[in-house]
């Protein structure tokens, strides 16, 4: 009896070991496609099947990035762009949260604010550029304002609708326990709107990255957007691609930071994604 | 003591949900309110809880008029309505955060034992079953030590086995805290199993059709003769409220005012 059970345990253990040997960490699965394509393209260029002038192979891209990094230029461009996105995101999301909260909590301010803001939202944000340049000049202010405008709307909309969709039933729990207005906001409203607010901030941040490029197109001497324009004018697709890769990495990185900061506060959510990993439905 | 005098509620859309209700409930009494849909039983509970205001009449708890949610009155909703971002322990302590932390911890620990969820203090609501959640909701209301606890069909969403279990636990909690219980239910069995007195309500407008005293002790045996008789009495009173024919109903009210066995 004990012998057979020991045997079967051993069999289970070895089966588990065999299973885990073949298991690929979930994060790596996503790398298969881009890395595979990169390697295949590199190989195709080296074998002479493709010219690779307009679309530089990965090795040239890495060399360009390394050269930019060594010259110190890269860090200047990254720093400048990050500072612009950071400032624009800060002011845009602050305004979005404050006005969104106002319009969510009070009917009067919603009736007062919302129609005007919705009308302004209908203007494609890039269309503000000429006006902003006239108003704020061609230097930092106009760029930060443009980014802030881009960030503002999704945050404003997200916060307002989050507040409006807080479950009346949970607010009633607060009433039964005689919470005052402030306690009602602090203990029920804020935690309840946090998940949608984080989502709104994430889409705001995404737009912030979009608008920093538009802002840097309208005349900048440094920044990743400048690197793009510069690459175009010099006819250097490798430099353009390098800037694109950095945009992708920074966008993903800042989004991940936002998610990581908010995760401890959102652990209670009962959603399909468990532990940050979406489950199969 | 909870006293309800000439209580009426007419909603803005003209629906007369309650008309001239008079009820006196002794401290520690368990009262079940049964009735078909639209008889105003949930309205009655919301008025006692101070969530809505009556059109006429008055509710007093120990002589104090109830015009807003009152510290002596707790309410358990049909759904648990736990706050999903708080742990079980913090959900239970939600209404007593003005007490010193030691006292909060003591009350939460005691409540967890009484509802059979020791060791669940740090769990989140999403990890609980329906029955467990509802027990936490009941504990949350009881740790504030209300004199009156209102329950709005608290077990209606649960399966029969879990419901039976919670009936037993409800009585144990009642013995530990001794609140007055006013429970709305549509289940005659549940009413007879738990209550000292069953108030049967009739619709259009909502009013009291009958009151049935249940004198047998606890725990109650569902197969017992007196249990069966009491249940039949509740069911037939309920039946009458569904039928037209006001005069017969009024006779019934007069005849059924006292206890009958």
Per CATH, which architecture of chain B?
3-Layer(aba) Sandwich
Terminal Cα separation of chain A, in Å?
Answer: 41 Å
Query: Which architecture of chain A would the CATH scheme give at its second level?
Result: Orthogonal Bundle
- Unreliable stretches of chain A (pLDDT < 50, length at least 5) are 1-6, 12-19
CATH superfamily of chain B: P-loop containing nucleotide triphosphate hydrolases
Structural class of chain A: mainly alpha
Q: Considering DSSP H and I runs of 4 or more, what fraction of the residues of chain A is helical?
A: over 70%
- The CATH homologous superfamily of chain A: MetI-like
Q: Can you count the beta strands of chain B? A: 10
Globally, the shape of chain B reads: globular
Largest sheet of chain B: 6 strands, mixed
How would you characterize the largest beta sheet of chain A? 2 strands, antiparallel
List key phrases describing it.
heterodimer, A: 281 residues, mainly alpha, MetI-like fold, 11 helices, 2 strands, globular, B: 261 residues, alpha/beta, Rossmann fold, six-stranded mixed beta sheet, four-stranded antiparallel beta sheet, 8 helices, 10 strands, disordered C terminus
Structure, described:
The complex is a heterodimer of chains A (281) and B (261). Chain A has 281 residues and is mainly alpha-helical. Chain A has a single domain (58-264), classed as MetI-like (MetI-like fold, Orthogonal Bundle). Chain A is 78% helix and 1% strand. Chain A contains eleven helices and two strands, in the order αααααααααααββ. Chain A has helices spanning 2-22, 26-46, 58-71, 73-105, 107-121, 129-136, 140-164, 168-176, 181-217, 224-234, 237-262; strands spanning 273-274, 277-278. In chain A, strands 1-2 form a two-stranded antiparallel sheet. The longest helix of chain A is centred in the last third of the chain and has 37 residues, at 181-217. Mean pLDDT of chain A is 85; it is low at 1-6 and 12-19. Chain B is an alpha/beta fold and 261 residues long. Chain B has one domain (2-255): Rossmann fold (3-Layer(aba) Sandwich). Helices cover 36% and strands 23% of the residues of chain B. Chain B has eight helices and ten strands. Chain B has helices at 41-49, 88-92, 101-114, 130-142, 160-177, 188-194, 225-242, 246-255, and strands at residues 2-10, 16-25, 30-35, 56-61, 64-65, 73-76, 148-152, 180-185, 197-202, 207-213. Chain B has a six-stranded mixed β-sheet with strand order 6-7-8-3-9-10, with helices on both faces. Chain B has a four-stranded antiparallel β-sheet with strand order 2-1-4-5, covered by helices on one side. In chain B, α4 packs parallel to α5 and α6 (188-194) packs across α7. The longest helix of chain B has 18 residues, at 160-177. Chain B is globular. The model of chain B is unreliable at 251-261 (pLDDT under 50). The interface between A and B is medium-sized, with 18 and 20 residues.
């Amino acid at each position: 009896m004990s012998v057979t059970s020991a045997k079967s345990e051993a069999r289970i253990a070895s089966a588990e070991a065999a299973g885990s040997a073949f298991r690929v960490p979930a994060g790596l699965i996503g790398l298969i496609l881009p890395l595979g394509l990169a390697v295949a393209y590199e190989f195709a260029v080296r074998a002479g099947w493709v010219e690779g002038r307009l679309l530089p192979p990965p090795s040239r891209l890495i060399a360009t990035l390394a050269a930019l990094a060594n010259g110190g230029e890269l860090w200047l461009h990254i720093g400048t762009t990050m500072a612009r996105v950071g400032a624009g995101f800060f002011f845009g999301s602050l305004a979005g949260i404050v006005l969104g909260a106002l319009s969510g909590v009070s009917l009067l301010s919603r009736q007062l604010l919302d129609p005007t803001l919705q009308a302004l939202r209908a203007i494609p944000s890039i269309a503000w550029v000429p006006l902003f340049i006239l108003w704020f000049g061609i230097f930092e202010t106009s760029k930060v304002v443009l980014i802030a405008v881009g960030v503002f709307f999704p945050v404003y909309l997200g916060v307002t609708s989050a507040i409006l969709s807080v479950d009346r039933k949970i607010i009633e729990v607060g009433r039964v326990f005689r919470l005052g207005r402030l306690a009602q906001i602090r203990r029920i409203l804020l935690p309840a709107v946090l998940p949608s607010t984080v989502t709104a901030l994430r889409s705001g941040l995404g737009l912030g990255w979009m608008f920093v490029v538009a802002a840097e197109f309208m005349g900048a001497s440094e920044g990743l957007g400048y690197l793009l324009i510069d690459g175009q004018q010099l006819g250097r697709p490798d430099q353009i691609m390098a800037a694109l890769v950095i945009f992708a990495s920074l966008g993903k990185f800042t989004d991940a930071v936002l998610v990581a900061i908010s995760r401890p506060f959102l652990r209670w959510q009962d959603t399909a994604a468990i532990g940050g990993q979406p489950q199969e439905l | 003591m909870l006293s309800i005098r000439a209580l009426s509620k007419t909603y803005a859309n003209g629906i007369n949900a309650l008309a001239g209700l008079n009820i006196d409930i002794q401290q520690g009494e368990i009262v079940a309110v049964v009735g078909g849909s639209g008889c105003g039983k949930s309205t009655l509970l919301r008025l006692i809880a101070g969530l809505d205001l009556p059109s006429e009449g008055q509710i007093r708890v120990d002589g104090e008029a109830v015009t807003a949610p009152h510290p002596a009155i707790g309410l358990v909703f049909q759904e648990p309505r736990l706050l999903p971002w708080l742990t079980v322990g913090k959900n239970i302590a939600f209404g007593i955060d003005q007490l010193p932390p030691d006292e909060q911890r003591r009350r939460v620990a005691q409540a967890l034992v009484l509802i059979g969820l020791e060791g669940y203090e740090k769990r989140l609501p999403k990890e609980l079953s329906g029955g467990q959640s509802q027990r936490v909701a009941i504990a949350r209301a009881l740790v504030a030590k209300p004199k009156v606890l209102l329950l709005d069909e608290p077990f209606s969403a649960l399966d029969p086995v879990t419901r039976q279990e919670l009936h037993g636990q409800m009585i144990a909690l009642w013995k530990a805290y001794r609140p007055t219980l006013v429970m709305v239910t549509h289940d005659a069995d549940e009413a007879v199993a738990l209550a000292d007195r069953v108030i049967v309500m009739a619709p259009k407008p909502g009013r009291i059709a009958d009151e049935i005293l249940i004198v047998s002790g606890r725990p109650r045996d569902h197969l017992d003769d007196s249990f069966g008789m009491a249940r039949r009495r509740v069911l037939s009173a309920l039946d009458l409220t569904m039928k037209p024919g006001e005069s017969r109903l009024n006779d019934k009210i007069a005849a059924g005012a006292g206890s009958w066995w």
